[in-house]
Design a protein that fits this description.
single chain, alpha+beta, PH-domain like, 5-stranded antiparallel β-sheet, 3 helices, 150 residues
């Protein structure tokens, strides 16, 4: 995420998700752009979901490679044995250690309109920074409106 200073105002920009100006959030979903006023945002949530099926698939592939290694050991093919043993061991251990996640940023407006941005764990840092920026701006706008109302 990049922060630019434009006319004494900070603009947070993310190529993947959109940009945050002092007055609005502009979301980029493929070729579509959605503009949301900061004052109309009621809640912002970031959901993290574990994708267990990828771990299961990786585990099954690792076990398959270990089975091939076992049968290549019976055939006495040394090169095939060591390569499949290494690949199977790495895949099996990686499936047990690493956790795959998907992220979903949900912005709910006061007029009940829902805006979603989805991301994989490859964009984890960027989506978290984007969420934190939007959340910080909305809290700041709510405080400003509350002070002005009093």
């Amino acid at each position: 995420m990049t922060t630019l200073k434009n006319n004494n105002q900070l603009v947070h920009f993310s190529k993947k998700f959109g940009l945050i100006t002092p007055n609005q959030v502009i979301l980029i979903n493929g070729t579509q752009q959605e503009s949301i006023d900061l004052e109309s945002i009621s809640t912002v949530n970031l959901f993290k979901k574990r994708i267990f099926s990828v771990n299961l698939l990786l585990f099954a592939a690792g076990i398959l490679f270990l089975a091939v290694a076992y049968f290549s050991y019976i055939i006495n093919d040394s090169m095939l044995f060591w390569s499949t043993l290494a690949i199977g061991s790495i895949m099996t251990s990686y499936s047990l250690v690493h956790k795959f996640h998907s992220y979903r940023l949900v912005i709910l407006e006061k007029n009940k309109a829902v805006h979603e941005v989805k991301a994989t764990q490859f964009h984890r840092k960027c989506i978290k920074e984007f969420y934190a920026s939007i959340h910080h701006k909305t809290v700041k706008a709510k405080r400003k409106n509350k002070v002005m109302a009093e």
